[in-house]
């Protein structure tokens, strides 16, 4: 996936962010803006703005007499979309998928329960549209993934809870990483049926059924991932 910002600033942020997440340089390692300018063949202004962007994500900091340095992993904004994506690029496999699956197991069933209780006609229409897009894009993995992301995003939005909805960045990262693993093997059996069950329960305004359906969906996803990672 390409970095969403264009231009040299975005390229520096993307490359340096990936390097930091991979451990090069290591935490507390020094970053020389002049050397970075030479490496990327960009102006001091571009380097400064790129470092500001990475500082906002918790990856770097600058102090008088100490200069610019990489912050410890515990200071990183781990839910930042770019930091999540860079972690997938570097860690790539079971550990991060497991962590995100555990977050989803806490968040999404509760979101589905609230969505069934609070959904509006517009929410149902948006959920139906996302489901239809998933069905129409099975042969187009990137489009299918984005339709899947949209489906889960609508469920959280329909919960009427802004804090739950804000966690969609975690859900989106988990789905995109999972789909890169799963989609190369085709759509998993039962994928459409589990999503249909969530849609039906939300549409019918049945909180218990919606929560159960989402738990079933996540359990099936975990089985799919485990089968491929162990295979």
TrEMBL record:
Pfam families: FCD, GntR. InterPro entries: GntR_C, TF_FadR/GntR_C, Tscrpt_reg_HTH_GntR, WH-like_DNA-bd_sf, WH_DNA-bd_sf. Keywords: DNA-binding, Transcription, Transcription regulation. Residues 6-73 form the HTH gntR-type domain. GO terms for molecular function: DNA binding; DNA-binding transcription factor activity. Signal peptide: none annotated. This is DNA-binding transcriptional regulator, FadR family.
């Amino acid at each position: 996936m390409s970095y969403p910002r264009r231009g040299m600033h975005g390229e520096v942020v993307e490359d340096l962010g990936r390097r930091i997440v991979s451990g090069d340089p290591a935490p507390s390692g020094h970053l020389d803006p002049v050397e970075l300018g030479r490496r990327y063949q960009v102006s001091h202004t571009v380097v400064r703005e790129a470092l500001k962007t990475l500082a906002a994500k918790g990856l770097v900091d600058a102090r008088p007499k100490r200069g610019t340095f990489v912050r410890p992993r515990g200071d990183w904004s781990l839910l930042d979309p770019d930091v999540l994506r860079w972690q997938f690029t570097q860690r790539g496999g079971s550990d991060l998928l497991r962590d995100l699956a555990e977050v989803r197991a806490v968040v999404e069933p509760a979101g589905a329960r609230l969505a069934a209780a609070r959904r509006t006609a517009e929410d149902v229409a948006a959920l139906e549209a996302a489901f239809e897009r998933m069905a129409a894009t099975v042969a187009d993995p990137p489009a299918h993934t984005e339709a899947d992301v949209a489906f889960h995003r609508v469920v959280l939005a329909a919960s009427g809870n802004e804090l739950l909805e804000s966690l969609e960045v975690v859900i989106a990262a988990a789905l995109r990483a999972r789909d890169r693993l799963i989609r190369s093997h085709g759509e998993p059996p039962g994928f459409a049926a589990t999503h249909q069950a969530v849609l039906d329960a939300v549409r019918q305004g049945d909180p218990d059924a919606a929560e159960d359906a989402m738990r079933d969906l996540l359990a099936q996803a975990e089985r799919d991932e485990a089968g491929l990672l162990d295979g």
